[in-house]
Amino acid sequence: MTELSSGDGLRAEDVVVRFGGLTALDGVGVHAPPGRITGLIGPNGAGKTTLFNVCSGLQAPVRGKVTLDGEDLARHSPSRRARMGLGRTFQRLELFSTMTVRENVEFGVEARWLSWDPVSQLGLRASGRARRRQIRHEADEVLHATGLEPLADRVVGSLSTGQGRLVELARAMARNPRILLLDEPSSGLDPAESRDFGRQLRELVASRGIGILMVEHDMSLVLEICDWIFVLDFGKPLMAGTADEVRNSPDVQAAYLGKEAA
Ligand SMILES: Nc1ncnc2c1ncn2[C@@H]1O[C@H](COP(=O)(O)OP(=O)(O)OP(=O)(O)O)[C@@H](O)[C@H]1O
C-alpha cells in the first residue's frame, strides 16, 4: 500500500473562475503537502467547492495553475488525476448501501486496479483467485487503518452516518491516494462522532503520510486537526495560517467566525 509520501503535494496558484458575470475565484491559491491536514474554510459562497472542482478537474479555470508533485494537471482529466493519486470524497454520502463495508472498500481497490496504468494491467493478468486474494488483502489493510474491521461484514445501509463517513473515507483510501480532498467530511455527524472522525484522519495522515485538503464548516474540527488553514472570502484569499493565527485573526472573525459563532 501507500509508502510514507514525500514531494510537493497538491498546489493551486492564482486561480480565477468566472460563471458569467460572477467571479467565483479571483487569484486564489492553496497548498496541501503530504503528511499534513490542510483546511480550506470561508463563509457560504466563498468559492471552496469551486476550488476543489478546479483541483480535481471538474471545473476549468480562466487562469491559474494546479500541480501534483510539481506536475501540471491542466491537460489531465478528472480520472487521470485520480489515477495520479488525487482522491476525493463528496459532501453527500455516495456509498452502495445494500453492500457490506468490506464490499464497498473492495470496490475502491478494484476501481484502482481497473484504471489504466502499467502496474494495474499486470495485476489484471493475475489469475482470478490470485487477484481476489490481493484485493481482499488490500481491503483488509484499509479496514484496519480506518478502524472498520469490526464492521466489515455489516451492510452499509444499517450503519450510522458517522460510520458511513468512515466507510466513505476507507473507500477513498482504497484507491491509494497521495492527496485526498474531503468535502465537508463531518456533515451529518454529532460533535462526538466528529471528534472521533478527526482523530481517525490524524492517525491516517501519521501512519500513511498522505496529505488531506479539507473543506469543512465545523470550525472546532478544523481548528483541532488542521496543520494549516486557508481562508477565502467572496472568492478572494483572506489569509492563511495556523489554527491559532486563524482563531485570533480579526479579519477572519469579521468575515467568518463572527457570523458562525454569533
Ligand atoms: N455552476 C455554477 N454556476 C454559476 N454560479 C456558480 C456555480 N457554482 C458555484 N457558483 C457560484 O460561485 C460562488 C462560489 O460557490 P461555491 O459553491 O464554490 O462556494 P462554497 O464556498 O463552496 O459555498 P458553500 O460553503 O455554501 O458550499 C457562489 O456565489 C455560487 O453561487
TrEMBL record:
Gene3D superfamilies: P-loop containing nucleotide triphosphate hydrolases. Keywords: ATP-binding, Nucleotide-binding, Transport. Residues 10-259 form the ABC transporter domain. InterPro entries: AAA+_ATPase, ABC_AA/LPS_Transport, ABC_transporter-like_ATP-bd, BCA_ABC_TP_C, P-loop_NTPase. It comes from the Bacteria. PANTHER family: CONSERVED COMPONENT OF ABC TRANSPORTER FOR NATURAL AMINO ACIDS-RELATED. This is ABC transporter domain-containing protein.
